[in-house]
Design brief:
Number of helices: 10
Order of helices and strands: HHEEHEEHEEHHEHEHEEHEH
CATH architecture of the largest domain: 3-Layer(aba) Sandwich
Radius of gyration: 23 Å
Distance between the termini: 29 Å
Structural class: alpha/beta
CATH topology of the largest domain: Rossmann fold
Helix content: 25-40%
Number of domains: 2
Shape: elongated
Strand content: 15-25%
CATH superfamily of the largest domain: von Willebrand factor, type A domain
Strand order of the largest sheet: 6-5-4-7-8-11
Largest sheet: 6 strands, mixed
Length: 299
């Protein structure tokens, strides 16, 4: 399956992607939420019927093999499933790879790749939208999971830098997108969780199912620090001298618990799904949990 050397998509991960085919097949066996079949002229998914050619029809829809046999011009019609995209918003701010430690960033990119793969295998279009202080260049891919290598190439080229401006990025995304079936937002929510309520309110205007994948490392939740430290805020470049004691660590853990609960409450208040995604959670378990919570996988 490997086509080029990736920094963080190793052979083991690609093999696990292959195993996700079973999940994609189960999803594909169900009608996508909000999907409807319409009979229209176009390059849809499923052949429906013929009709006589009339001037103005596009030549590419003419059934040329039929014309070669019968010398009559017919135009092919298709059933088209008209569901909206699955949009994956991926946080690429500096806090996703603090101090050059990219474990959390790699986990987030693997998550985005796997979600895209399953969605494409289920016959859905996927929009990958990185963001930090602004929306970055995006990638839109079709309903063929063979295009996963384009997704891997795209994600492999991303770097974690800049500040997180969640509310303004979501605002621009909503203005540009117009509609979506499912929005999956992958972020550590650090330094932007107070913007989460406004971001969720804007996403609700799309009439879509929103899933927040709160991605964090064990060190985010419970740092193993002791003694005199210089803490560096990578997004603002601020530094603080601090003596790390047991009391300080206990206070930090309480703040972290409160932070997580607040994020969860914000999601519930906007009817969004909140999924904790610690980087030590087995990957397949994360995929199953996320897809079930999103309502696209049953059983």
């Amino acid at each position: 399956m490997m086509q080029r050397g990736y920094d963080f998509f190793d052979e083991d991960f690609l093999a696990r992607l292959q195993r996700l085919r079973l999940i994609a097949k189960r999803i594909a066996s169900r009608a996508p939420t909000g999907a409807r079949r319409s009979r229209r002229l176009g390059d849809g998914l499923e052949f429906a019927d013929h009709r006589d050619y009339v001037p103005g029809d596009e030549f590419r829809f003419i059934d040329w093999p039929y014309y070669a046999r019968m010398e009559k011009l017919l135009v092919r019609l298709f059933h088209e499933h008209s569901e909206a995209d699955v949009a994956i918003l991926l946080d690429v701010s500096a806090s996703m790879a603090p101090g050059g430690d990219i474990d959390k960033f790699n986990y987030a990119r693997r998550t985005a790749a796997a979600l895209a793969y399953v969605a494409m295998g289920a016959g859905q279009c996927v929009l990958l939208q990185p963001f930090a202080d602004e929306l970055h260049r995006h990638l839109r891919v079709g309903r063929n999971r063979a295009k996963i290598f384009g997704v891997l190439d795209f994600l492999d080229d991303l770097t974690a830098t800049g500040r997180t401006r969640l509310a303004s990025c979501v605002e621009r995304f909503v203005q540009r997108q117009g509609s979506a079936g499912t929005v999956l937002l992958v972020s550590d929510l650090l330094d932007c969780h107070r913007e989460l309520r406004d971001a969720l309110a804007r996403l609700s205007m799309l009439g879509c199912q929103t899933v927040i994948l709160h991605t964090y490392s064990p060190a985010d939740a419970s740092p193993a620090l002791t003694g005199q430290m210089i803490l560096h805020q990578v997004e603002t470049d601020q530094r603080m001298n601090l003596q790390i004691t047991d009391d300080v660590l206990d206070s930090y853990r309480r703040e972290w618990t409160q932070f997580s609960r607040e994020c969860r409450r914000m999601c519930l208040s906007r009817r969004a799904i909140y999924v904790e995604t610690p980087t030590d959670r087995p990957f397949e378990q994360l995929m199953l949990r996320t897809l079930k919570r999103a309502g696209v996988l049953t059983g």
